[in-house]
Specification:
Layout lengths: L1 H15 L1 H6 L4 E6 L5 E5 L11 H16 L7 E3 L20 E3 H10 L3 H19 L5 H15 L24 H11 L3 H7 L3 E8 L2 E8 L10 E9 L3 E16 L5 E13 L4 H21 L7 H4 L8
Antiparallel strand pairs: 1-2, 1-9, 3-4, 5-6, 7-8, 8-9
Length: 321
């Protein structure tokens, strides 16, 4: 009697729990050439699912765009960890405590390299407060910041994405979701920001936090195992029970120099974006997809880059302001 009861209980939990359903779902993947938007490979790329800490790419974009708009220097601007960081779990590579201060740049390093949820929340709290103050409004600063993240998705053509927090942790009745195709769009937008482009390619970074006992230094290591391999520029890892292991990867090759019909030379920049969601071997899978992607892209260029159906073959990604 006990075994059948357990089997029925597991079945019931699987039917009721979105976390279990998403974790057991198939892998999603997308490979796209960033400059042309050419879709090279896609597997379940339109399936909506949690994306864990890939969410932090949107957090970084909103923060960097805000700093650019307000002419704030991210290397000098001090932000303060709010009391609410005590409610957030996950890695805390800086041992961040409420009331601690650090620069926005160091918080971005910890969020993007170390996948630090507390740093992401601290960024959202500070920028959200500034946004509310600028608009003459009161309210929850983190909610205001997340609202900007969701505005970003619409401006970037990410029609299947909803963010519910700045870090990507799942919460009961509050679970964000996206698709491999939308994450490819987000990665392309992120890598257009020089500050993010620079941060995510670092293998590690020394940062400083000032707390009640003074200033302390920490070494933040990049969670992306592909960093250091030829051509790899980043960009972000993510893992959760609901999302499974996820990875967004960017790889550049030297521009392709070709002779035009008029005899002049032209340079074609080359960049692949690879998204892998819910893959047990995300790094190995990304390496394989990069090899496949370059082979397909080179063949496409050699055939004079034909496009028969732009809506299906090209991933259009506007640059949001």
């Amino acid at each position: 009697m006990i075994r059948p009861l357990i089997v029925r209980l597991i079945a019931l939990l699987s039917a009721c729990s979105p976390l279990l359903l998403h974790a057991q779902g198939p892998e999603s993947a997308m490979v796209v050439e960033a400059y042309s938007g050419k879709i090279l490979l896609a597997t379940n790329a339109a399936v909506k699912r949690p994306v864990a800490s890939l969410t932090k790419l949107a957090t970084a974009i909103v923060a960097v765009d805000w700093a650019t708009a307000t002419e704030a220097d991210i290397s000098q601007l001090a932000i303060t960890a709010p009391q609410t960081i005590t409610l957030v779990g996950g890695p805390n590579p800086m041992n961040l405590q409420p009331g601690d201060t650090l620069t926005l740049r160091d918080a971005l390093y910890s969020a993007l390299l170390g996948s630090d949820n507390l740093a992401a929340l601290t960024i959202a709290d500070h920028v959200g407060r500034e946004i509310l103050a600028k608009r003459g409004k009161d309210g929850d600063p983190v909610a205001a910041f997340v609202g900007e993240m969701n505005k970003l998705t619409k401006l970037s053509g990410m029609t299947q994405t909803k963010f519910v927090n700045p870090h990507g942790l799942e919460r009961p009745r509050a679970q964000g979701s996206s698709t491999a195709a939308d994450m490819a769009r987000l990665a392309m937008v992120a890598m257009r920001r020089n500050a993010i482009n620079f941060i995510v390619r670092q293998k590690d970074r020394h940062i400083e936090v000032t707390g009640a006992s003074g200033k302390h230094g920490y070494l933040i290591r990049n969670t992306n195992e592909l960093i250091g391999e030829e051509g790899i520029l980043g960009i972000k890892t993510g893992t959760s029970a609901a999302a499974g292991p996820c990875l967004a990867t960017c790889m550049d090759r030297a521009p392709l120099i070709r002779t035009k019909a008029d005899g002049s030379k032209g340079a074609t920049p080359r960049r692949l974006i690879v998204i892998v969601l819910n893959s047990p071997d995300r790094f190995g899978r990304a390496r394989h997809l990069l090899q496949q992607g370059w082979t397909l892209y080179d063949a496409w260029l050699a055939a004079d880059a034909p496009v028969n159906d732009p809506r299906r073959e090209i991933l259009s990604v506007p640059t949001p302001n």
